[in-house]
Amino acid sequence: MLIFTWMAIAFIWDLLGIPRVRSTEEKEIMATEDQVIMEPSLDFPFLNDTKTVEYVGESKTLLLLRGPPGSGKSSLATAISEKYPLKVAICSAEEHIPQGEKPPFSREMLKKAHTDCQQCVKDACKEAYPIVIVDNTNASLLSVKNYSGIGHEFDYVDVLVVPQTSWILDAQELVKRSSRGFPLEDIQRKLEKFQEPIYPLFYGWFVNKTDSETMRGTGETFYERCLSKREFREEFTKHLLPDASGKTPDPENYFSTENYTVGPVMLHCTAFYSNYGEVSQSEAYATQERVKADNGKAFTIKVIGLLVTPRSLGLRLKLDDEELLLWPQDEVNEVAEGGAEETCDLAAGEKSGPCDDECIITHLSPTCGTGSRAHFSLGSGPGVEAVQTGLDLEEIIKMEQEAVRMKRSHIVIALEDATAVGYGEGNWMVYFDQACSTEALFAGYF
Ligand SMILES: *[C@@H]1O[C@H](CO)[C@@H](O)[C@H](O)[C@H]1NC(C)=O
Ligand SMILES: *[C@@H]1O[C@H](CO)[C@@H](O)[C@H](O)[C@H]1NC(C)=O
Ligand SMILES: *[C@@H]1O[C@H](CO)[C@@H](O)[C@H](O)[C@H]1NC(C)=O
Ligand SMILES: *[C@@H]1O[C@H](CO)[C@@H](O)[C@H](O)[C@H]1NC(C)=O
Ligand SMILES: *[C@@H]1O[C@H](CO)[C@@H](O)[C@H](O)[C@H]1NC(C)=O
């Protein structure tokens, strides 16, 4: 009886196109069902990590559940909505298929279900629910990109989540557990599709809109402080790239995010670029235990300086030990010519291996070796792409090492709360007296 009442309510909500926030009544039913029928693992950072729970509860997050029917997506969705009362909207393509219908569903019906589900996600995002969940059996890359695209429009950070259930690859078991009574052949087909892995464009740490604006403000403040110094302004302006019309640009309005495909509002630090699986090490990276376990986990990212070159403007980060575990160790993504760690050794004297706090011998080399390339891009010079920031930071790190080793000359300017060092050719690094930090969610970007 209870179930029918709930179904009727759900149906009306769906008819009205209102994203459903699971009611208390439903919670009870689902909780009982969960215990009896399913025992999905709740070992996800957004369910078991205090800091992440606190963060996700107030930062727009789009959780895209991926798994065959019966794999525990709905139970997981319920567990999440219980963890975050009144903060979760759940959109399910299947719930947009009329209850009486039995598979196989017609092409038209599926198409409509997806269109309705997309509308549900859009509405939920518009309403600014902190957490929007998409419960979708057909999570092809195209379909995931479609939903994440809606999320990006509304400044949501997307996280693809696969239920951790022991039977997720067991077709017989899935048949028993699937609520819509899919026949075995159907389940097998869906299972095959599910087993084709999908990879994001890249993995990294994502800063939400509010915090991005704050960090951007910090970067701009220090850039303005640089520009207020005659010595900086003269050296830097000499090396600016001409704009499209060939005029000498004005440093105040020099950097732009016009050509950024990701963002441009929201800052991110790329850990691994997988290009939807085109990069051959994608599987090796994605299947690492740490990468899987930390998907959707909140981190505090330390910002230690501002990088200013004629090509890019960016914030320099110092990853902590836990964050470094997510940095690719295989040097493939690490363009560390000549071995960054080796130069770190030289700079640090006795120290070997990647820099730890003790390794910071001078403010001229606050980071080096693995992970030192970590940054948030803030802007690019005319015709320059966003990826340039990372390359410029690598160059600057080499120049820092040289400055320490060879006593190579550089310009030093004291700024309010920072020191700007010019390494020549318009390449500057602004070292903050004190690091600042921001919260960020580790995830893949689709
Ligand atoms: C939470 O879940 C993660 C991801 O599976 C796991 O690695 C971690 O040990 C769990 N933490 C706790 C406190 O249960
Ligand atoms: C971003 O996260 C901060 C906490 O770090 C939170 O106060 C803020 O509301 C969030 N903003 C958005 C748009 O999610
Ligand atoms: C799954 O999604 C793809 C792309 O969005 C679509 O072409 C296909 O028809 C969908 N299949 C089902 C069974 O919903
Ligand atoms: C998602 O797919 C629908 C059609 O199925 C299309 O109208 C819409 O533009 C797509 N959205 C994105 C963000 O790709
Ligand atoms: C954006 O890209 C176009 C085409 O590559 C280029 O002509 C233009 O200068 C770029 N704009 C900026 C601000 O970099």
From TrEMBL:
Topological type in the membrane: Lipid-anchor
EC number: 3.1.4.37
Complex formation: Exists as monomers and homodimers.
Keywords in alphabetical order: Hydrolase, Lipoprotein, Membrane, Methylation, Phosphoprotein, Prenylation, RNA-binding, Signal
Localization, UniProt: Melanosome; Membrane
Main location (coarse class): other
Domain AAA+ ATPase intervals: 59-188
Enzyme class: hydrolase
Physiological role: Catalyzes the formation of 2'-nucleotide products from 2',3'-cyclic substrates. May participate in RNA metabolism in the myelinating cell, CNP is the third most abundant protein in central nervous system myelin.
UniProt name for this protein: 2',3'-cyclic-nucleotide 3'-phosphodiesterase
Catalytically driven reaction(s): a nucleoside 2',3'-cyclic phosphate + H2O = a nucleoside 2'-phosphate + H(+)
Protein family according to the UniProt entry: Belongs to the 2H phosphoesterase superfamily. CNPase family.
Pfam families registered for this protein in UniProt: AAA_33, CNPase
GO molecular function terms listed in the Swiss-Prot or TrEMBL record: 2',3'-cyclic-nucleotide 3'-phosphodiesterase activity; RNA binding
Organism whose genome encodes this protein: Strongylocentrotus purpuratus (Purple sea urchin)
